[in-house]
Amino acid sequence: MRSPLNDLPKTALGACYAIFVIYLLLPLALMMAMSFKDANFIAFPISNWTLDWYGKVLQDKQFIEASVYSAGIALATTIGATVIGVWIALLISTEGIRGKAILFALACLPAVVPGLINAISMRIFIRMVDIPTGTFAIILSHTVHAVPFVVIMVLTRLRSMPANLVDAARDLGADAFVAFMRVTVPYILPALIGGMIFCVLTSIDDFVRTFFLGGYKPTLPMLIFAKVQGGMSPEINAMATIVLIVTAAIGLYAEHFTRRSRS
């Protein structure tokens, strides 16, 4: 299919691409550069470069505790969202099930509802069922938000799966569970890993839901937000740079794993 962009000059397309890359990467580059500034304020030029702020961050007890806490929430969220998401995807892909479109729409609804609305509704819900704010409430909210990503990725993979693979396994004597574990799971594994990575990244990055449902123990976004209230500093930039590098590494690994599995 011919795209309307094909009629544009290559120089115009190149200029648009360059502007987009600059718009995307320049703020990140400035943030990372400021994390090496030797003075305790944000401004150019940078007369001397230092790694002291990174050493201070890595020795910050609050940062380490918040990172471990956020990682634990992300792990629990990923497990819950993966189990629920795979179950919904399998249900939608099963023949003879009525109302698939409605089920798919309901499963994807948390991804399109604004985060603020979702957080307020979850806050009302946990009060009605007498669930205290804190870790469990955060995990519950993050899981609801992460399920659509697993459903979409796994369902897309399931729809490309030849139906005769499972039938062949059943004909060879495998029961439904064995056929699922040895045929279906290996086939959907790239999508499963991709969905799990999305769950981890969305949970670690989530601020609005955590703000409404969290207790006194801060997650990493909450800690950075609290520090920003006292003014920007190279230490905050160093924290943000560490988070950026870790999340980017996770995303790149997921992309590499998915490509290798598909090939």
UniProtKB/TrEMBL annotation:
Residues 67-254 form the ABC transmembrane type-1 domain. It is a multi-pass membrane protein. It holds the Pfam family BPD_transp_1. It comes from Agrobacterium fabrum (strain C58 / ATCC 33970). Belongs to the binding-protein-dependent transport system permease family. CysTW subfamily. It is found in: Cell membrane. The chain crosses the membrane at residues 12-34, 68-90, 102-126, 138-158, 179-204, 236-254. GO terms for biological process: transmembrane transport. GO terms for cellular component: plasma membrane. The keyword Transport applies. Keywords: Cell membrane, Membrane, Plasmid, Transmembrane, Transmembrane helix, Transport. InterPro entries: Bact_Polyamine_Transport, MetI-like, MetI-like_sf. This is ABC transporter, membrane spanning protein (Putrescine). SUPFAM superfamilies: MetI-like (SSF161098). The gene is potI. It comes from the Bacteria.
